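note to self — DONT lose this again. spent like an hour looking for the file last time. sequence + predicted structure for the chain T wanted, 268 res
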Amino acid sequence: MMSERQRKFRENYKAEISPFYSGLLHIAVMYAAGISAIYYCISQLSGAGWEWWLVLPTFIAGNFVEWAMHRYVMHRKIDVFALRAIYDRHTRQHHQYFTDNDITIDTTREFRIVFFPWRVLITLGVGGVILGGLASVIFNPNAGYIVFLTMVGQYLIYETFHYCCHVHENWFVRNMPFVNTIRRHHTAHHNQGIMMKYNMNLTFPIADWFLNTSDVKRSLLGTLFNGYSEKYVKEELKPVMARFRNDDSRVTLDGPLLTAEEERIVAA
């Protein structure tokens, strides 16, 4: 059940969205640009063979970058213009708008709080061109195109999975493998007691499993295919999560005010 604090934040946030903002245009441009970039890369490939194996290390590296950006930029206040803006948008807005009590949106205008701004795709494109260019120099042009399309594809997966985390419950998000896992995983991340330390992945919780920042204690395969199950949630986290789910009086724009004991538990 949504708290009064969350309700007021949502009302204020929605009131400040520009009347010219279009959620459908937002995602149309993003997906059109991303899919077009992938299509262009595929069209430029010439007899690619072993180069397709580069998808795996690029994907794994991207999974850990995703984790690190979430943990150390989106949830850590760094007083540098662009990094501070990312922190403000994520911790001070996204995590106030959504909690594990109410994780869903109702209108396309709320896409503004779910999807990244277009400049993120542009930044990723620049990074992809640089890394793809290096791969093409070190290996060959096929390698460069495959590295680039993998990065763009991973970003589109990120945005799609994140959207699936914030829509209303339906058959697809409840039953689709990986999607159901990340939906529960991300809902738990929005618990205001553990949000600064746990469940930082938003695609596949590989880095969270490897770095022990998943709220569930399972094998890698168990973590990836956990679905909606709460059976394996770490026992030590349950009291903290329950406390903040029922009382947000110790929640600030910069995260929860934890007791020393809670800090010890969450940091473990």
